[in-house]
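Minutes, project check-in
Item: structure for the 87-residue chain
Input as provided by the requester:
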Amino acid sequence: MLDITAADGWTSEALWTLYAARRALTDAIAAAESAGAALLPLIGATEWQADGVRALHELIVALRARTAAEMGELNTRMWEIDAAAAS
């Protein structure tokens, strides 16, 4: 006869850890979105032809790209947490 046992359920500690991780990622995503949104008007405001302002413009554009990349990483971590919770 086959030995069939039910899968172990989630413990309260595991659920707490899952929800705490999700909350931390949600907060991080919100902060990254706010930072990215704050950078957008600066990109347009620094499109001048002076060398110093051009360097500032390029730095702001690079920061916006890095912020977007970080948001992608955070969303990947959120997907991993959701996938672990579903299993």
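Outcome recorded: The two ends are 27 Å apart (CA to CA).
No further action items on this chain.
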